[in-house]
Amino acid sequence: MVEIMKEICIGCGACVRECPVRNLTMENEKASVKRSCMECGHCFAICPQKAINISGYPSDGIIEFVNQTSLVNGEEFLRLIKSRRSIRDYQEKSIAKETWEKILEAGRFTATSGNGQDLKYVVVQDELETVKKYVWDGFAALIEQLKKSRGDTSPLVRQLRSMNAVHLASQDDRLFFNAPALLVITSASPLDGGLAASNIELMAHAEGLGVLFSGFIQRALALNEDACDYLKVEKTQICACMLLGYPNVEYRRSVPRKAAQITWK
Ligand SMILES: Cc1cc2nc3c(=O)[nH]c(=O)nc-3n(C[C@H](O)[C@H](O)[C@H](O)COP(=O)(O)O)c2cc1C
After folding, report:
1. Model pTM greater than 0.85?
2. Among 35, 63, 48, 67, which Cα is nearest to 9's?
3. CATH number at 9-54
4. Pocket of ligand 1, candidates 136, 177, 214, 251: which has the most ligand atoms within 8 Å of its Cβ, to mutate?
5. 3-state DSSP call for residue 195?
6. Which of 191, 202, 213, 241 to mutate to test the pocket of ligand 1 (most atoms within 8 A of CB)?
7. d(Cα 237, Cα 101) in Å, to the nearest integer?
8. Does CATH place domain 76-245 in 3.40.109.10?
9. By alpha-carbon position, which residue is closest to atom 29 of ligand 1?
10. Over the stretch 32-68, which tens digit does the pLDDT of each residue have?
C-alpha cells in the first residue's frame, strides 16, 4: 500500500503527475492516495523528499541516483550483449550463493505486466544429478511424443534419439553438457518470465558466468510430472530453463547475425 508521509511531503506534485493510473491527488497542498494500486513504485522513485513509503516490501535493493544519464555507457552495454554466447562447456566450479543472489536480483528488478511480480526461481545445484535423471526420463517421453506428431524419421526425432543414445552409451551429455547448475523460472506470464530470464542471463555474463537456455530441458521437464513435483513447479508455468556455470571457453569475436527486419513508418 502506498503511504504519503504528510509531514515530509512538500506538495511539489511530482508523484501526482507521474502516477500512471492517476491514483494520487493533491489535498490541502499535500499528495494524497485515492485507493490501493499496482504499486509500481514510480511515486516512490520520483519523490524528491523521500516522503513516500510502500508497505509490505523488503527494504533491500533500493539505490539512489545522482545522475540518471550516466548510468551505463550504451556502447559498452551493446558490447556486453554482443559478447554473450550460449555456453556448452563449463569449468568444474560451482556458483557461490552470493553470486546467485546477485544475478537473481536482475530478475527481481525486471518489469512485469501490471507489476504482478509473479515469478519463481528454482536454483538446482546441490541436487542437479537427481534432476538430470528426471529430465532424461522426460526427454525419452519427448522423443515418443515427437515421433507421434512428426514421424519416426523426422530430423528432430533423429537428433533427439541420437542425443539419447550417446548419453546412454557414454558420459557425453548433450542436454546438460557439464554445467554445474540449472535455473528454472516459472510464471503465469511467459513474457514476464522471459524478460527476467534475459536480464538474469546478461547479469550472469557480466559476472563472468556462462548461460545456456535449454528448450529441450524445458520440454522434457514439463513432460515429467515427478520432476515437476520434485522441483515444486507448475508444468504449464515453466518459462525458462537455464544452465549456468563458469565458461570453459573463450571467444575471440562476436558472431554474424541476419539483418534486422525493421519496418519504418
Ligand atoms: C529459448 C532458447 C532455447 C534454446 N534451447 C537450446 C537447447 O535446448 N540446446 C542447445 O544446445 N541450445 C539451445 N539454445 C541456444 C541457441 O541454439 C543459441 O542461442 C543460438 O544457436 C545462437 O547462439 P548464441 O546464443 O551463442 O548467440 C536455446 C536458445 C534459446 C534462446
Report:
1. yes
2. 48
3. 3.30.70.20
4. 214
5. helix
6. 213
7. 22
8. yes
9. 213
10. 999 999 999 999 999 999 999 999 999 898 999 887 6
